[in-house]
Please model this.
Amino acid sequence: FPLRRFLLSSKNSKLMRIDQVDLSVKVRIHFFFDKNCLIELEIAVMGNKQSTQSSMIDNLNLLYRKAVTSQETNNNQQALSYYNQALEQIQFMHNTTQDIDQLQINILLNICDICIGQYNIAIANTYIAKALKLAFKLQEQDKMAQCFDKRGEIRRLEGDCDGALRDHNMSVKIKLKLEKGEGLDVSYSYFNIANIYDDQGKYDNAVRMYEKSLKIQLSVLGNNHPSMATTYSNMGIVYGHQGKYDKAIFMYKKSLKIRMSALGNNHPSIATTYNNLGLAYKNLGKYNDAVTMYKKSLNIEFSIHGKNHPSIATTYNNIGNVYQAQAKYDDAVSIYKKSLKIQLSSLDDNHPSIAATYNNMGLVYINQGKYDMAASMYNKSLKIEFLALSDNHPTIATTCSNMGNVYDHQGKYDEAISMYEKSLKIKLLTLGDTHSSTANTYSNMGIAYANQGKYDDAVSMYQKSIRINLSAVGDNHPRIASMYSNMGSVYDDQGRYEDAVSMYNKSLKIELAAFGEKHPSVATTYGNMGTVYANQGKYDDAVHMYEKSLQIQLSVLDDNHPSIATTYSNMASVYDDQGKYDDAVSMYEKSLEIRLSALGDNHPRVATTYNNIGLLYKNQGKYDYAVSMYEKSLKIKFSALGDNHPSIATTYNNMGSVYDHQGKYDEAISMYKKSLKIELSALGDNHPGIATTYSNMGIAYQAQGKYNDAISFYEGAATILADAHLQHHSDLAAIYDNIAICYDEQNRDEDATAIRKKSADIRHNLQRVDIVNQTSVNAVQRSQAWKDKQYFSAYLQALQQGCCRSKVIRVMYTGPEFVGKSSIMKVFTKQKLVYFQTPTQIANQSRKMVHLKVYRIKDRTTHNLRRIWDNSIHHIVQLQYQNQVSKQIPKIEQRLADQHLSSNFQRRSPAVQSISINQNTTDTKLPSSRTPTMPSTANNLCLKQCRHFFRHYYPSLVNKNDDDSQYAKIWDFGGHSIYHITHQPFLSGNSIYILVFNITQKIHDRVMTRNGQLLNITYLQSMQEWLTSIIGGNANQNTINVTIDGSQAEYSLPIVILVASHGDYITSKQQGMDRFIEFERQLRTEMPCYNSNIYSSRIIFNCNPQDNSSIALKNRKQCNIRLHKIMESFVKSLPFMCNPIPIRWYIMATILHTPIESNKDKVSAASYFMNRIRVIRVNKIMTIPEIQSLAKDFGLYESDDELIAMLSYLHDLGEIVFCRKADKYGIIVTDVDWLLRIFRAIIQLHNCKSRSLEIQSLYEEASKTGKISTKYINYVLAPYKLNDEMKKSIVNLMETYDILCTIKSDSDQNENHYFVPYLLRPDVKPFNLRKYHVSKVLYIGYENNDIPYIPDGIYYCLLSSCLKKWNNSKVELYYQCAKFYLTSSCHYIIIKKDRSYIALQYCYQKADNSTSVDSIKSAVQKSIYEYRPHDIIKDKLSLIVNDRMPKFRGAILRYYVECHQCGNLTFIQSKNEREKKNLIECQSCTMLFESQSINDWMYLNKEQQN
Model:
């Protein structure tokens, strides 16, 4: 009867009801009273016991019926609630009847069903144990049988197939005993046993058990019962596992017919059958039919369950699998995510179904080449599986195997094998050594071993896999076909081509029987056979196979499927081998188009296509294009595969091959070494790929005449191939041939004969004898000898006398930060604008510091500077040759030509045969040169060097014409004010500058960043910094007359063209023009001395990348044309562009300079000799004597003056940095961008990444004081790997340009410190002067008409110079302010930048007594009067300005004081100083005022002196 629970309240002694439950027994209630007193209330349940028991049973039955109803409607949570209520009531009973115990068993079994569905295996085990205990207690045989069946199901989910079989067999034994025959319950057990056999891969046993179950069902239930449909469906699943897809479909259709008849068209079982049919159609390659079935299933599930049911998630997963097979990877990921969303919302977070979806997504990411994302998915899957399943569950083994696949694709073969071994251990433990899943793991291990070149191990793994599968599924299963294909691939790699074809034929036979002709697997096998034929040189047979493969693929796959791209690529490779280059290009283009569309532009297969296109270009001799393809390939591989993947090694090998073809043997060897390093790390010591690299290195060394080194590498390659059982491979024969050639060169005739016999034996065995006949080649060479001599003579003459007009001028985009310089440059050079483009690299963290383009002025097309110079050299030599054709060659030149060419046309060895890797190499061509006056005592070495130079140009000399175009080399410099001082070494008076400002800002506004932050510098100050650096730093006083728009004017050099940006923010054209004119006017007023250098273009660019309207495009076009015409007018008038340039300067430039063009601008191909000079003789930092020695050694030196002129010219072009004043012998930096990066590393403080407290303190000190130590320099320059001499040169160079200044340490004479003012933060407050007596301010500066602005660079140079004068530990440095301590007179001098002037003050410490004060004051005043530090500072500033700003050399530097009346500064006239009067007349307001500044600094009476 109902019982109410009451709680006694201590506060009001009232009874409070807390709940109401039905009870039939005595209840003991425990609760806390006032948190310290435990009250125990015992309530006796009164009433008729028998009446209570009856009521209880009725209530239990009611709860049970409600639970079953909820469970049948998939409301499992409600069902569990009812079941648990029932179990709670049973628990309160003192005594239970047999009926109640049986009911309890039913409840426990039903809860197990729910837990199984939710994959709560641990909970299910708890309940089945209780149920089984009760069954044994009751000795109810039928309940015991039910419990064994249920426990068998649970053990099956745990992967314990043997335990599950024991339970089901025990159930069958009990049932047969009870029923005395085979009834439906026995049929149910047979059904479960069949499921386990299917899991174990014992498919025949499974079919047999299903048939036994089916026989019973037919006799009891008839033909149309839904249980019959379930059995038919499961039989279809087994047939599918056997690869008998037609039988599977037949069973599914029988199941579907029964279910539709018995259950109607909208039952969940119908949806399940459609799902199964979809799987069968997918396996048959009928993807559209599969999707149709899945969509039918979805429609049913939507109508029954809504859109958030786990079964819908399963169907989504199945559809995703089809999309994956169709290579619709984005669609697959999308639908997997739909599935995952449903599962996460409807299932427990650790449900295995969620893990399965993660697994599926991982496979997609593998196919997309997104290996890290794939690994992430598998790790998520493993995490769930370890929580939900036992540690040795087969599903975990499968995920481990999938993770191994990721590692295999990443080239991490050892890690892949480790994961496969983990998988194998689990499968052997749980599934045994005869399960098909175990066979799959053996197969995966075979693939990894094959990739490592461990072919014997691979074959062993494949054989194990085949043996298991033959036992499990028979000899006609598609899985067997897959194993045969894998074996064929290994035999192909081993050169066992007939064995490979045999394996592929076996595979093909099975696939044709299982799938018919029109199946993707059949197409794949045809393609594999085509590859074998191609390797055999049977190109027609190969093309035939590829065409058969392509025909099938086009009929069953989408036109955009990656498999079709693979076939196109394979066909292209064959056409390439046949020399059908046009056909090959066409095929590669088709392949690339598909892969880019289907896989994206960052997939490894796209990289492979670029590699193969590169190979094609190499075979065509288009080396620049080949290199371009390889670099594209490398970029993708680095991104997708990391930097240690064997595929990257292959690309390095191919690039080495290109360099080898170009004669750039050192660069080739460098590439081969990079390849070798990766291969040894990823593949081990004995992979055949390493043999290829060894062989290629041997070829390079052989070409260099290093025969011992070549033989060593050849022998290493031969050993690897022999160890890999490739002793009959054609590659080994090629290696023996190459060794024989080396022996020939060493006159080791017997060794050469012996090794050639080995090669001949191999070729005989392969029935592929390669006959190398070089005689005809030598004949052709001899027929060209005389023509070569003529050209060589012309080349020598050109080196002596040849000059061409300078064609290139540097154009530098400059201006305040964040004004859009880069965008204007992109618009001007016809590049694509980038939305929210980051500031130019000099101001950010990217690697490149300077954006650079070379474009032809007449049509604004981009060009390569090296090719421009090469064309000029070609043209000069061609003219010399034409002049000599009808003349007698001078005798001395004839002798030289004969001497050079005689060695070139002697008998040559047979062509060295290299092993290609189905990828290609690329060329980097560099010019070479010869001395203007050949020494009369020229030795053979010099002649040989000259010949190498000539050989670079000769192939391009014939019919080589040169146009008269002019070119602009455009630089986009960073605009940040902190870098102005670093710009100084790179500026030139022989350049044109484009000065950009923001049209929306006024000249006195503070500069605004893209994020709206205001900086501490105005646009005027930034303009002043730039203009003073550009114009003031140039000594050129020349002027030019230029006509623009019909108006002629005189301009001073260098030329600055003023343009505006952000035109898209201007509402009208007139508004923009008014703003431009006002900005121009204020600039002219503030800096009148620069007016003759500046041309106001009044061009306003619209550079908004999101605005591509017709108006915006028209604006850009008009602005481009306008700026182009202005530049063209100036370029034509510049003396720099009219100067004759000796071609030897161009040759030396190419030797010295490492190009800083972007990767898209490929430098021209250079001879091996030129590259050798670079490697051995050229460093990033060099001195004038080193350059002089280089020029003399290679015939490029005429005089010291000409050498200096050449270096200055190259500096003007931005090819090098030449600082004659630096160090004792001057400094030349051959890599400009490298130098800029070093400057940035030292002067730009970012967040310190070091965890060292010492390094962090160094950073903090640098930002606050501007002082850095040697330790700081060593730390920031560590990535550049500079030796001590290079660091010393860098410091010297920076000191020369006053970027830093050495500070001697008082304590440690070995530890230098440096002052770098650009490190000082503006937010650090300067020194506190409250304890000091401070003088009035005295200013130093120039009249506005002379020098309108003293830039930061000059001010910091002044501070550095003062440091050298007053260098001690008490120096304090702050942003634009410094305090120097004068030890002799115990006072400080303060130097501060104040607008366009230098402000001076002195101060001394306050004393406690008057005697000390007078003593200190007297010493200070005496120092000011006699030592006159202000004059020292003034003289230093004058010297710095004259040196750093030669434009204003001779300008008068004056003292200034501030007028008390108007606040303006007025200079002190000489009479004030001479007469020692402190009364002064203001030049601005003409008022007389007394200046305490003059009194403090200049006028001192005798009493004060004493």
In short: The two ends are 120 Å apart (CA to CA). The chain has a mean pLDDT of 79. The chain is about 60% helix and 10% strand.
